[in-house]
Structure formats: C-alpha cells, structure tokens
Amino acid sequence: MGSFILIFAIVILGIACAIKKMFNREQINGFENFLFKIATPCFLFYLTATCSVGDIFNVKYICSYLLSFFFVALLTVILIYKHNTYPQICIKILASSYVNTAIYATPVLAVLFKNPIAAVIGNIIQVVCIQSFFLIIFSFLQNKNKSLFFVIGKIIYNPLIIMPIAGLIFNYYNLTSYIIYLLIITSQIGNLSVNLSLFVFGLMLGNFTFEKNLISKEIFMLVLIKNIAHPFIAYIVGKYVFHLSGYWLNSLIIIKSAPTALIVYFIAKNYSTQGDNIKYIVSLSSVASLLSIIFIYFLL
C-alpha cells in the first residue's frame, strides 16, 4: 500500500506543479529530454545488463504481450472501420493498443514490484516490432519517399532502444565484468528516472486541456478499449492461453492498463492523421489510467 501511495503522491506533485505554472514549457522540455535521452536509457541499460537473460527471453510473456495487442487491434478495427480511412484505422489501433512504457509502466513496476523488467521487455517489443511495423505501413500508404532500411534505422537509432539492446548484448556474452564502472554510472543516473518519470507524467497531466465539444463518442470508446478492454484481454490471454502467473501476469495486466503513449500523438502529427483526436485520447487515457490502476492494484 505504501508503494501505491508513493506513486500517486509523486504524480499529484507533478500535476500541482503544472497547475501552479512552476515550470515553463522550455523547462518541462528539459525534463523530458533528460528523461527520454539520458536517465531512462541508462536505467534500461543497467537493467538489461544485470538481469537474468532468461527473463528477457520469456517466450510466454512475449507471446502474451503480442497476442493481447493483436486482439485489441482487431477489436478496434471491428468497431471503427466503417467510418475511417486506412491511415486513420492504423493510428487508432496504436491509440487503443500502444502503451506508455517509458514514463508510466516502467516506474510503476519499479515502485510496486521492485522489478520493472517486464516493462523493459514491453518497451523493446513495442518500439522494435509494433512501432516499426506501423511506420512502414504509414510510409507505404502515404507514399513517403523513404526506403524500408531508412525507416527501420530511424526507429532503432533511439536511446530507448539502443541502450537496452547494448545492455542485453553485454549480458548475453558475459562481458559485464569489463564495464563495471559503466554499470555504476548508469545505475546512479538511471535511478533518477523512476521518480522523475512519475513526476513528468504528472506535469503532462497537469498541462493537458480538455474541450468537451471536441471529445467524440469514438474517442471515448477508444479510451475505454485502452484502459478497460486491453488489461482484461491481457488477463485472459496471459492466464488462460499462456498460463502466466505471479509477477509476469500481474505486470502484464498493469502494463496493458497504462495510458496511450505520447509517441502515438507524434506519429499522428508527422503523418497528418487525426492529430487532435489522438491528443485527446492520450490525455483521457492518462487520467483513466490513474483510476484503473487503483482497481487493478486492489484486484491483484
């Protein structure tokens, strides 16, 4: 219970700071840049370099993660395909299925279970597999003059991906003894990311503005899919299809209840696809995630 209260206290502090305008936009951007480009990559590197390789390659968990994503994507397509173009369908699949692992799921698992490795795996799956797949589709649908290798290279050339993969390589080949000082440095810097991520999440929530007239029934439906249907489907798939239990099942459910990742909004803007709608889905799912995790926490 103490860990749960700590999560909410840090998030609420971030919301209060945003409401009081204690940080301007440039300062918030600085927080986000430090978090996404330095602190969180260091945290991911240290985790993958020192964890059990068997945990990273947990086939049942990986399959549960991907299959639950597929079922949520299928549900989204069934509900919205009649009134949307192909690019709109793709971005709304991401809005209902692509979770915020970097600044929500990872710190939440770190605080609750003292072990965020399940969120690290989710981050790698999402960026390497899911995000690259949909960006290739967007590039194809909108005739972007970029090669397949360019698109994939741009995705992989990201500290949130490079660092955990590098850590995994050092771990797999038993080379960590040669980088002991690097591990110490990344551990010290990475430890900052847990509480800072929750604080920045609160800042983001506090800076979101809602306009009721712009929130449609479809947006509301996609938020319900993201924050209610997604963790429920993950529970069914994890428990009854792949027989997960304990830490792995609980982590899967909590991760899938996380809000829509902000990167989905950036993708929508980049491809001029439903940008404003996605912004509201990110906002509403972020608020809903704070409510859904209360229910999930006490249920688990």
Euclidean distance between termini CA atoms: 12 Å
Helix content: over 70%
Determine the strand fraction and express it as a percent band: under 5%
Low-confidence stretches: none
Summed up, the helix count is 14
Q: How many domains make up the 3D coordinates?
A: 1
Order of helices and strands: HHHHHHHHHHHHHH
Counting copies of identical and different chains, the oligomeric state is single chain
Walk me through this protein's architecture.
By secondary structure, the protein is mainly alpha-helical. It has one domain (2-299): Na+/H+ antiporter like fold (Up-down Bundle), CATH 1.20.1530. Helix content is 80%, strand content 0%. It is built from 14 helices and no strands. Helix 6 runs antiparallel to helix 7 (117-141), helix 6 (101-113) crosses helix 10 and helix 11 (217-241) packs across helix 14.
Which characteristics define this entry?
14 helices; mainly alpha; 300 residues; 80% helix; 0% strand
Give a short overview.
By secondary structure, the chain is mainly α. The chain has helices at 2-19, 25-50, 53-56, 59-80, 86-97, 101-113, 117-141, 148-156, 159-172, 180-207, 217-241, 246-256, 262-270, 275-299.
Which secondary structure elements does this structure contain, and how are they paired or packed?
Layout: H1 2-19, H2 25-50, H3 53-56, H4 59-80, H5 86-97, H6 101-113, H7 117-141, H8 148-156, H9 159-172, H10 180-207, H11 217-241, H12 246-256, H13 262-270, H14 275-299
